[in-house]
Design brief:
With 226 residues, the chain is an alpha+beta fold. The chain is built from four helices and eleven strands; from the N terminus they run αβββααββββαββββ. The longest helix has 34 residues.
């Protein structure tokens, strides 16, 4: 088992090393623009459109926003995952984890290639605004997400049944994760504005919160008349 784990770890390292050369070449123009001072800014706001013509937008605070160099392989993989969502319920419920895995994998590639500082992250404030400064000129991809939690009433399982069936998990609740994806072109000395709202969400997925059901307290043993 240990040998298998080590083999998988080495395979992952070799895979990163194999792609590091291509990634390093792809991010070289961004690093050069940074060194030459050819940078710009990206500003944005996240909100829900007003439901009435005279209403005001509702800001989305605490939206996680990430800015990374544009990459065709990354975008193709994101498209593949979204396209597979409708194929089966299993693919739908697994899509949130798949999207997270792909995103984190691309971050590791950038770090391994020497471009870790090109992974830029921000969180929208109480007014739904966010801002990136000193962004090297070039084509970027903005990824953002927010979660809307939903609770589910848990079922109670008698203690003897909970002890009989191991791994008898259930859904405690779920979070609807709304994701935005937008290309951003950064130009030297300029500021690019981005608007994220409920009508331009790229995809909505579900992240389940599973746990072992609580045991139902067993009552005192019944007394039988002799």
């Amino acid at each position: 088992m240990i040998a298998g784990v080590l083999a998988l770890g080495l395979a992952a390292v070799f895979a990163l090393a194999a792609g590091a050369g291509d990634t390093a070449a792809a991010i070289a123009p961004y690093l050069q623009a940074r060194d030459q001072g050819r940078t710009g800014a990206v500003t944005g706001e996240a909100f829900a459109e007003p439901t009435r013509p005279t209403g005001a937008p509702t800001p989305y605070p605490a939206v996680s926003v990430m800015l990374v160099p544009s990459d065709h392989t990354l975008e193709a993989e994101l498209d593949r995952i979204r396209g597979a969502i409708r194929e089966s319920p299993r693919a739908y419920f697994a899509s949130a984890e798949h999207l997270r895995t792909v995103q984190e994998g691309y971050e590791r590639e950038l770090v391994f290639a020497g471009g870790g500082e090109l992974v830029r992250g921000e969180v929208s404030d109480a007014a739904g605004r966010f801002r990136f400064t000193d962004v090297p000129a070039g084509s970027w991809l903005l990824l953002a997400w927010r979660e809307v939690p939903h609770t589910v009433s848990p079922r109670r399982v008698p203690g003897r049944d909970a002890e009989t069936f191991f791994g008898n998990t259930e859904t405690k609740g779920y979070a609807a994760r709304e994701l935005w994806r937008q290309p951003v072109e950064v130009k030297p000395g300029e500021s690019t504005a981005v608007r994220l709202h409920d009508r331009n969400v790229w995809v909505t997925v579900v992240r389940e919160d599973r746990h072992l059901p609580p045991k139902t307290p067993e009552g005192p043993p019944s007394l039988k008349r002799r």
